[in-house]
């Protein structure tokens, strides 16, 4: 309310100052302006001079009356309170009172105003005259004023005793009224000075100083604060409210939130930050907090209220986001609009006064010098109002954009946590990240342009009004020409909107592909598909490039039209004047030219505005469609209170489908009741619906019918481990408080103690993105520990034992499921049949139904399917027992129940690596447990080499001088055309013209057309150079990233790379060339302006040079702070995207644990962390702009005073008028030079960040022409390791040490060892994912380090532990290079047990695969990876836990297929299931990075103390109980 009041008052000021300017100009010419003067007098003298005295008395009586009401109300309230609580006594505690500068100024201004009115009374008593004939009336009015200001002073002094931080309402009301009276009386004084042509008297000066004091008090009344700080006794005085409490908790106060009015106007609340930033590079902790109203939590809540309001009003579940945004921004937008309108109005005062100024200079002898100075003051006042209003509306627009961005990002995040499965599949991570980065940016850009909508009609109306005053009916031609130019926007905008939509579509596709490639880079490198996928992204970029070129080409044409528009409008207007016979004097021409230059701004802004509206419309529609997507069914699961029945999970006649529109449900006829403490095992073949059954308990899968009821809290362990970036402890605690005893029990039960001992920083070791530096087993155990620590009632475990070895699996089952979780209800999916006998209930899934249910013994007797799974496991077990029995020591092994079994992790972990993935745990040693380092951030000024790299990227920078020449020519021709018009036009209507009208007009047209053509050349070249540079830098970055080693991807969060490929690349595509170009163009423009001004009055240089020096100093002072703020804002953007990507991947887990609020709050904090540097960066820009505008205003007014002071005849009035015309834009130009340079430097950070990733360390060459292996290599497949040593960094110990062994060709070799023994490192060394430091690896006598990576990797095959699928089709996933026929693909699908599943789908080989292959089960994805290997049929096949996610029956089939299909090939197998290596020809046992055993399985089993014997014994001991049951079953089958 106060702000609106303030705006109203400012509008009053603007109105009166407009009148003042009109009065000033009117006073300059007695004859021509007589009518205007009379009109002005009629306006101001509403009745008589005494009218305002009467008005003042009435106002003051009203004030005294309201004061009386205030005190009566206060007395009544106090007496009522005393009556109601007679015994209560208020205890006052001593405290401190701090009187701020505001309080002292309030007292000072009140004393000044009181004194001024006392002085006037004394003057009246001494017989001083008044304008009002009734001296008594004036005397009474002054006495009333003294009384009112005395009361005001007492009230101000009393605020200290009242202990109130707020001013009383009656005092604020009086100060507003006092300001109104001051401005009225000052305006009256000016009127009489101008009319009576007399010098100001003492009373006039008193009124003027009173106005200054009143203006200050007006500002304070709007703000409402006393300026007194009260420090209460902390022990006795509670905090007043929650906001204070929050501020106390906060790290830093917001200086913006507690700034005074003067500080808000001048942005001096930023001074402390600049002081720090100038001394040292700013860090995130140096930046103060943002104001509460700008915080993400506050704006998110406000936006929620707006959405709910629209919902209620429209009665709809999907409220219009447009209406919600309107409600959200309307108040702040209205304030910004007020400032924008004032700024637009003030900017036209200059052109309005130019004709009067030229007339003054032409007839100095008839004019008084004071009139010229008053004219200069009028110019200055208008420029000052314009400066303050412009800075405030731009800052307000940025602030509003910040609020809207925070609100929308928080809602996009919240939506992401609740998206249904189907909605999630229709919006990939890349798309949603684009919503957050690109679309939100476009919407906030529109908020900035929103004010131009209000400014345009004001600017155009004022321009036409001024033209009409000067040129009469000739202005109609100008109006028509303006309308014609603006109408050109309509088709251009329509086409531009279509281009923008296309750009966003192709950008989405590129980002989607890039995101997918970065996630699966290891698979691409292992399969040698990286080049193919690189070409795919380049092809998508080419499409994007084509649309960008079309858009930029259209922008260049727009630039030509709108740079040429002032020329076109002036030609049409002056042509019409010549035809109509309207005389063109120098003053009129210059006023018109100044107006055309002012018109240029709205005409320039219109195409940008329409383009931004088009972009914002597309972006809002995209965000709206996303926010209206279906969410998880809230009623899918009924949360019931615990009751006597003891059932914690109940499913009755459940029917569920991942795709509700499909004909066949995913699950049907589901009946399940689980009592408290029951252990329910779920088994079945791949794709039978095991994971979906858990999902229906979680409420993840859409429910078609039936009922799901759960009682109690739940915890969930997904099949694919979901690990958050952060340390291990944070992942386990998962937001819960740390309880050391509970924590120790948890990590012991989850077999993590040994891991922590050997991690570099224990449980504080940092985990990389998606847990890249942990083994599959470690990730699985960490997320089991997370679930256990939650201490939930119900546990849902999806295949928790697949990623761990035999010993660890047994330990987990005994200590965790049957130990610490003994009393909990557990549903666990498993493929390991040995974990089934302990279950209270076993569910056998088949085709989405529970085929069998019962205990283990019951199911064995039923003989309807369960025995197939058991039989497959029995066969595997029998194969192990058979090998065992064949060895001489097998009996002893089985009878020895106390063999010393090695722990889950041996000491080899410190230098060893895990089973499945590249381990970087060791690399964290020197970084205090920190794997993912803080994002690279240059410090200090942006290097000249960055600018040079950008400018010379295309054709060595040959286009740059041509662009500069075109702009310089444009400037010269434009000045020449204006100079020509000013020089050739007569100064007055009576004077003879220098040349004929036809020649005057013809020369002007030629010069103007020439300047417009220069603009066309410049705009086209900027578009071409910018886009070519952007494309080249993108290609360099893309190639550099693709050629980087895996270590780079392991330690670099995907968000950092995506940020560069998305946001930074957008800056290069659409903004960078323009921003850098404008640096040069604005310098050329200001040089032209200074040249024109200095030619008239070279003395301007006397002030211009020192002011320029001050400007440069300000820039140097500003740049270090602004640069670091921009860098920090760029860096703080990445965690938002990274956290969002992580949350999307683990949304099911977050929902299962009911942690949505915690993650939402974390997102709000990240938004605030980004908002802090961003807000202070845009504020800093306004801080600088305000100061530069003030300085340029000072230069301008100095030049005006100089022109007024010079004797007549020294200068040509027409050319002097031209100088003023150009000088009007001096503040804009001077500010734009610095602003453009700073803006370009801020944007150049994007170039710097992209160049960082264009110079990454590269892998070895893909192809080495002189060392290409033969086409049929490797024929035999013999792998020979000679003295192999591998380390991950120079300063780290070796991971593999002195490996000397030969894996014979066409044999099956099993590689076993504990977690961290170096198995995966050995596999990575074969593929050269890590390079040997010493020794060699030879395949068929070819040293693999001497051939190209592509030649090596394309000849080998691997089936990784984590199955990878790409978005696309089944065919594209099996054969991305398009090498094989459909028959070959079908054959491979049949062999890997997927043929029937794919044939059952309508699209067959073109069946859809969504992002990450999430529409296929993990087991099916594993089988697809096998299918790829079967198609490739390499001489060497590596299996890395290849069947961990499939059931025993499928595993048995797969092993047989591999044995058959690869019988004459070399097969290297890493496995936790011992039976997969038991029938190998050779077994290689690794420990601590060394080969400890290498022989046939039979020979290794002969030695009782061999490592391999111990592993076999573990497995057989674990399965002994199961084996006994199996024998019973077999006996039953035989009988």
Task: State the gist of this model.
The chain contains 53 helices and 26 strands. The chain is an alpha/beta fold and 1535 residues long. The strands form seven sheets. The chain has a six-stranded mixed sheet, with helices on both faces. It has a six-stranded mixed sheet with strand order 20-23-24-17-25-26.
Annotation keywords:
1535 residues; alpha/beta; six-stranded mixed β-sheet; 53 helices; 63% helix; elongated; disordered C terminus
Describe the protein in words.
The protein is 63% helix and 9% strand. Helix 28 links the parallel strand 11 (794-798) and strand 12 (825-829). The longest helix is centred in the N-terminal third of the chain and has 50 residues, at 369-418.
Give the amount of beta strand, in percent: 5-15%
Oligomeric description of these chains: single chain
Report the count of strand segments: 26
Helix amount, in percent? 55-70%
* SS class: alpha/beta
> Could you tell me how far the N terminus lies from the C terminus, measured between alpha carbons in angstroms?
93 Å
Task: Please summarize the sheet with the most strands.
Answer: 6 strands, mixed
CA-atom Rg in angstroms: 41 Å
Number of helices: 53
Residue windows where pLDDT falls under 50 for at least 5 positions: 1-47, 83-95, 231-251, 888-929, 1525-1535
Kindly report the average pLDDT value: 77
Blueprint (SSEs and pairs):
Blueprint: H1 2-26, H2 34-44, H3 51-84, E1 96-99, H4 101-125, H5 135-162, H6 169-196, H7 202-223, E2 228-231, H8 242-249, H9 261-266, H10 271-279, H11 296-314, H12 321-347, H13 349-362, H14 369-418, H15 421-426, H16 429-471, H17 474-487, H18 489-519, H19 521-527, H20 530-563, H21 565-580, H22 586-627, E3 638-639, E4 647-656, E5 667-675, E6 679-684, H23 690-698, E7 703-710, E8 714-717, E9 726-727, H24 728-733, H25 740-749, H26 753-758, E10 766-767, H27 776-790, E11 794-798, H28 806-820, E12 825-829, E13 841-846, E14 849-854, H29 856-862, H30 866-886, H31 890-895, H32 944-951, H33 959-984, H34 997-1042, H35 1046-1051, H36 1054-1070, H37 1072-1096, H38 1100-1145, H39 1147-1152, H40 1156-1205, H41 1213-1223, H42 1226-1252, E15 1279-1286, E16 1296-1303, E17 1308-1312, H43 1319-1326, E18 1334-1339, E19 1342-1343, H44 1349-1353, E20 1356-1359, E21 1368-1369, H45 1370-1374, H46 1382-1391, H47 1395-1399, E22 1408-1409, H48 1418-1432, E23 1436-1440, H49 1448-1461, E24 1466-1470, H50 1475-1478, E25 1482-1487, E26 1490-1495, H51 1497-1502, H52 1507-1518, H53 1520-1534
């Amino acid at each position: 309310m106060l702000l609106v009041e303030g705006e109203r008052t400012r509008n009053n000021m603007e109105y009166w100052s407009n009148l003042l300017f009109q009065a000033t100009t009117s006073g300059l010419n007695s004859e021509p302006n007589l009518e205007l003067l009379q009109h002005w007098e009629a306006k101001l003298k509403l009745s008589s001079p005494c009218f305002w005295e009467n008005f003042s008395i009435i106002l003051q009586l009203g004030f005294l009356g309201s004061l009386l009401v205030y005190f009566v109300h206060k007395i009544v309230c106090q007496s009522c309170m005393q009556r109601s609580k007679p015994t209560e006594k208020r205890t006052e505690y001593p405290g401190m009172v701090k009187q701020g500068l505001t309080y002292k100024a309030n007292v000072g201004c009140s004393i000044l105003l009181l004194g001024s009115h006392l002085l006037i009374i004394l003057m009246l008593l001494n017989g001083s005259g008044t304008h009002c004939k009734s001296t008594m009336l004036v005397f009474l009015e002054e006495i009333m004023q003294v009384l009112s200001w005395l009361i005001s002073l007492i009230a101000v002094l009393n605020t200290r005793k009242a202990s109130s931080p707020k001013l009383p309402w009656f005092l604020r009301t009086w100060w507003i009224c006092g300001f109104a009276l001051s401005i009225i009386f000052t305006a009256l004084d000016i009127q009489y000075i101008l009319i009576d042509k007399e010098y100001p008297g003492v009373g006039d000066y008193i009124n003027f100083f009173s106005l200054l004091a009143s203006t200050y008090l007006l500002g304070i009344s709007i703000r409402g604060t006393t300026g007194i700080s009260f420090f209460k006794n902390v022990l006795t005085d509670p905090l007043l409210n929650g906001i204070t409490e929050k501020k106390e908790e906060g790290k830093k106060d917001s200086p913006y939130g507690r700034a005074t009015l003067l500080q808000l106007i001048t942005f001096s609340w930023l001074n402390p930050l600049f002081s720090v930033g100038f001394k040292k590079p700013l860090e995130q902790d140096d930046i103060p907090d943002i104001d509460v109203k700008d915080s993400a939590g506050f704006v998110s809540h406000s936006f929620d209220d707006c959405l709910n309001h629209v919902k209620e009003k429209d009665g709809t579940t999907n409220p219009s986001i447009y209406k919600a945004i309107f409600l959200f921004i309307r108040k702040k937008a209205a304030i910004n609009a007020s400032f924008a309108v004032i700024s637009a109005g003030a900017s036209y005062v200059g052109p309005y006064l130019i004709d009067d100024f030229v007339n003054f200079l032409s007839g100095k002898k008839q004019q008084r010098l004071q009139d010229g100075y008053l004219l200069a003051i009028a110019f200055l006042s208008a420029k000052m109002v314009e400066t303050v209003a412009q800075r405030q509306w731009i800052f307000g627009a940025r602030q509003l954009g910040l609020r809207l961005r925070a609100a929308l990002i928080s809602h996009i995040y919240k939506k992401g946590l609740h998206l249904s499965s189907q909605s999630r599949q229709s919006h990939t991570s890349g798309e949603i990240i684009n919503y957050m980065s690109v679309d939100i940016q476009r919407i906030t850009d529109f908020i900035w342009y929103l004010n131009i909508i209000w400014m345009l009609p004001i600017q155009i109306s004022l321009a036409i009004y001024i033209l009409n005053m000067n040129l009469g009916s000739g202005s109609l031609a100008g109006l028509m020409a303006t309308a014609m130019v603006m109408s050109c926007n309509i088709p251009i905008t329509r086409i531009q909107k279509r281009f923008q939509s296309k750009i966003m579509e192709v950008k989405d596709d590129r980002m989607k592909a890039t995101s997918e490639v970065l996630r699966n880079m290891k698979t691409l490198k292992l399969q040698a598909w990286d080049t193919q996928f690189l070409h795919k992204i380049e092809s998508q970029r080419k499409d994007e490039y084509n649309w960008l070129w079309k858009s930029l080409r259209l922008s260049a044409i727009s630039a030509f039209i709108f740079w040429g528009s002032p020329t076109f409008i002036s030609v049409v207007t002056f042509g019409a004047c010549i035809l109509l016979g309207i005389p063109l004097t120098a003053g009129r021409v210059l006023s018109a030219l100044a107006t055309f230059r002012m018109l240029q701004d709205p005409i320039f802004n219109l195409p940008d505005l329409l383009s931004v509206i088009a972009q914002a419309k597309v972006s809002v529609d995209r965000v709206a469609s996303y926010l209206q997507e279906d969410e998880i069914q809230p009623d899918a699961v009924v949360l019931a209170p615990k009751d006597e029945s003891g059932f914690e999970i109940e499913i009755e006649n459940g029917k569920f489908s991942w795709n509700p529109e499909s004909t066949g449900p995913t699950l049907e006829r589901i009946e399940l009741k689980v009592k408290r403490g029951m252990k329910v095992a779920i088994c079945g073949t791949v794709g039978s619906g095991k994971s979906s059954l858990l999902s229906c308990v979680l409420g993840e899968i859409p429910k078609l019918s039936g009922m799901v009821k759960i009682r109690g809290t739940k915890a969930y362990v997904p099949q694919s481990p979901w690990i958050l970036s952060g340390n291990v402890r944070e992942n386990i605690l998962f937001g819960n408080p740390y309880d050391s005893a509970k924590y120790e029990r948890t990590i012991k039960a989850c077999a993590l103690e040994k891991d922590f001992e050997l991690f570099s920083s224990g449980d504080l070791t940092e985990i990389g993105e998606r847990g890249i530096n942990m083994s599959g087993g470690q990730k699985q155990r960490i997320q089991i520990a997370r679930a256990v620590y939650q201490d939930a009632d119900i546990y849902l475990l999806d295949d928790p034992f697949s990623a761990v070895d035999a010993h660890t699996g047994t330990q987990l089952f005994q200590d965790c499921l049957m130990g610490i979780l003994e009393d909990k209800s557990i549903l666990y999916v498993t493929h390991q049949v040995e974990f089934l006998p302990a279950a209270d209930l076993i569910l056998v899934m088949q085709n989405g139904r529970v085929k069998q249910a019962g205990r283990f013994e019951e199911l064995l007797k039923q003989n309807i399917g369960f025995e197939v799974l058991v039989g497959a496991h029995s066969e595997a077990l029998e194969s192990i027992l058979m090998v065992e029995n064949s060895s001489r020591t097998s009996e002893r092994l089985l009878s020895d129940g106390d063999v010393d079994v090695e722990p889950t992790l041996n000491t080899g972990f410190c230098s060893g690596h895990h089973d499945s993935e590249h381990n970087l745990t060791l690399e964290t040693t020197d970084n205090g447990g920190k794997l993912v380092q803080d994002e690279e951030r240059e410090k200090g000024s942006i290097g000249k080499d960055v600018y040079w790299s950008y400018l010379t990227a295309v054709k060595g920078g040959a286009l740059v001088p041509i662009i500069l020449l075109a702009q310089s020519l444009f400037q010269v021709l434009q000045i020449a055309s204006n100079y020509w018009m000013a020089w050739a036009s007569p100064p007055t209507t009576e004077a003879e013209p220098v040349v004929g009208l036809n020649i005057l007009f013809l020369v002007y047209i030629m010069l103007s057309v020439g300047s417009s053509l220069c603009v066309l050349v410049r705009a086209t070249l900027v578009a071409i150079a910018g886009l070519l540079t952007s494309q080249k830098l993108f290609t360099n970055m893309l190639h550099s990233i693709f050629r980087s080693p895996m270590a780079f991807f392991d330690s670099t969060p995907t968000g950092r790379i995506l940020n560069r490929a998305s946001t930074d690349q957008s800056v290069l595509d659409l903004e960078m060339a323009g921003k850098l170009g404008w640096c040069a163009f604005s310098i050329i423009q200001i040089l032209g302006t200074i040249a024109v001004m200095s030619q008239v009055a070279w003395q301007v240089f006397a002030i211009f040079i020192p002011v320029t020096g001050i400007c440069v100093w300000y820039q140097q002072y500003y740049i270090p702070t602004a640069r670091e703020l921009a860098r920090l804002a760029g860096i703080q953007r990445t965690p938002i995207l990274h956290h969002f990507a992580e949350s999307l991947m683990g949304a099911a887990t977050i929902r299962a644990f009911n942690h949505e609020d915690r993650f939402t709050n974390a997102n709000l904090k990240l938004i605030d962390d980004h908002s802090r540097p961003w807000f202070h960066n845009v504020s800093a820009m306004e801080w600088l702009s305000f100061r530069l505008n003030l300085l340029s205003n000072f230069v301008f007014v100095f030049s005006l005073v100089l022109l007024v002071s010079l004797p007549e005849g020294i200068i040509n009035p027409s050319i002097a008028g031209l100088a003023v015309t150009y000088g009007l834009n001096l503040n804009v130009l001077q500010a734009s030079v610095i602003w453009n340079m700073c803006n370009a430097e801020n944007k150049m950070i994007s170039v710097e960040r992209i160049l960082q990733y264009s110079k990454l360390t590269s892998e070895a060459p893909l192809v080495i022409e002189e060392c290409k292996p033969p086409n049929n290599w490797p024929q035999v497949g013999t792998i020979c390791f000679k003295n192999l040593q591998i380390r991950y960094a120079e300063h780290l110990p070796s991971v593999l040490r002195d490996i000397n062994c030969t894996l014979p060709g066409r044999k099956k070799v099993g590689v076993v060892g504990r977690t961290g023994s170096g198995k995966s490192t050995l596999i990575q060394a074969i593929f050269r994912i890590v390079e040997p430091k010493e020794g060699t690896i030879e395949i068929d006598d070819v040293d693999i380090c001497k051939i190209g990576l592509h030649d090596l990797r394309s000849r080998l095959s691997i089936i990784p532990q984590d199955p990878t699928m790409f978005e696309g089709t089944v065919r594209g996933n099996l054969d991305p290079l398009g090498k094989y026929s459909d028959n070959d693909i079908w054959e491979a699908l049949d062999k890997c047990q997927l043929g029937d599943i794919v044939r059952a789908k309508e699209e067959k080989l073109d069946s859809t695969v969504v992002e990450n292959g999430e529409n296929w089960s993990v087991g099916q994805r594993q089988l697809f990876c096998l299918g790829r290997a079967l198609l490739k049929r390499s001489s060497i096949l590596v299996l890395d836990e290849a069947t961990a996610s499939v059931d025993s029956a499928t595993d048995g089939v797969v092993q047989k297929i591999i044995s058959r299909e690869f019988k004459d090939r070399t097969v290297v197998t890493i496995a936790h299931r011992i039976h997969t290596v038991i029938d190998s020809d050779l077994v290689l046992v690794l420990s601590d990075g060394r080969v400890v055993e290498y022989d046939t399985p039979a020979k290794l089993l002969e030695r009782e103390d061999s490592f391999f014997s111990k592993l076999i014994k573990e497995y057989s001991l674990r399965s002994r109980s199961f084996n006994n049951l199996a024998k019973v079953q077999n006996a039953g089958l035989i009988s």
